[in-house]
Structure prediction request, 570 residues.
Amino acid sequence: MAELSRNEHIKEASDYLRGTLAEGLTDEITGAILEDDQQLVKFHGMYLQDDRDLRAERTRKKLEKAFAFMLRVRISGGVLTTQQWRALDRIARVYGNGTMRATTRQTIQLHGVIKSNLKATLKAIDEQLLNTIAACGDVNRNVMCNPNPYQSKAHAAALQLARDISNHLEPHTGAYREIWLDGEKIAGGEPEEVEPIYGKTYLPRKFKIVIAVPPSNDVDVFAHDLGFIAIVDEAGDIAGWNVTAGGGMGMTHGEPDTYPRTASLMGFCATRDVTAVSEAVVTVQRDWGDRSNRKHARLKYTIEDRGLNAFRAEVENRAGVTLGAPKPFTFTAMGDRYGWTDGEDGTSHLTLFVPNGRIQDVAGRTAMLTGLRKIAEMHKGDMRLTANQNVVIANVPPQERPTIEALVQHYNLVQPISGLRRNSMACVALPTCGLALAESERYLPDLIDALDEKLAQYGLSEDDIVIRMTGCPNGCARPYLAEIGLVGKGPGRYNLYLGAAFDGSRMSKLFAEDLEHEGIIAALDPLLATYAKERAPNERFGDFVIRAGFVAKTGNGRDFHANTGAKRAA
Prediction:
């Protein structure tokens, strides 16, 4: 039997995620915590980071790294009251770095919280009936769905399902309340229990669940461990859910045994069976997943190794449910619809583009942080986060709309953007992510500026083309499902991927490696020019580069790395 990974021993000895976290908070000599506790604190929804821009200077001065914590709030379905929004805004300004970040997992991250402020920060979050438990770590994380239940009955059902799944799979350990809230129970807290689903060592790796409502694949359902796709009948009611399993975006450069994978359609189930199926999938992964090699520990590898049929049979056995054949469905896009939309109940909803999710005030450009705070101070509805790093001002009554529109204009919250920019995403990367090999959030806007000049030359400025960037191959911004994907390889260098499907159903293919800024422009310029001249009516860029022979259509799982590189000369 293979030796368990170090993390498995840490979890086993942690006393249900307690470790020595409480003692570490009292150590005033360092801004860090012990190495083992750095793994455990992820289960509590935070990462220890340091400002890598300051490393060299602080090393020269023989100072400790500029340590601080990133906190990720657990917000199932991405819905916040305006009071909760105002509270998170205040926490960001008082305890964090003065910004909020809307993430690709439909939640808010708070950056720059130093160790001495952790308990005060988490207590302030708890006062709003929010928490950070299981937003990170080897557990089921934030459950995503389209955040607007007022759009239709199906969307309302999806949001309720997301909350039900999240609550059912939330860890039961009392460690979170003991360490961060001085043992105080949150409102509605349940009696303490041993972990009935996870056990002492939780899952082999992180686990992500999403719920999609066609025709929009705004949650990237195929990118995640477990997904549910709404099947809607002619009356607009939910007839049931297609079940997907085995998606995951992470890999490691130079290690072909690691790869991203799109989820497989596993079957169909009724709404009443969704929670049981979810728990069964989680427990099969708990028992079958690889606990010796964390790079091989996600559900996608379990399914690749065991086979989908065997996995499905075990899930059915544990859930007591026989899955039916998947039902037909159609996705048309995976982005957000910006601007105003009307709900079935007479209210309106305004979706705002947030560049790479960073909610901040930028002198001379936009006052996003202040503007959204002012809206939250008067808005009687709520605020919603999308899976594409954007914000929805939701449930706006007709009489409130003129005031919100005036605030949007005053704080410059809506700016002209190209089709490429409105379909862009980037991970945080430098300076805070310890895994980052290259810039992402800070660089992608400049790259899009340069590409927009080329697109304007070819009459493509308004064309929707999905572009995503990450600072490393772990795939937090889901770059392998972008028509143009850029993955950090080293300082200022990126691998370029092309050919994903606009609806998120097909991954991209490696086109070129180790490109710097000018190399990216040089590689894409002739492709965009050819696309403008030769594309078929309504043909998407990702489909075109395959049809035109620039890249091969990608395979899934182990076949992802096959037939890489440019085919037709640009």
In short: The chain is about 30% helix and 20% strand.
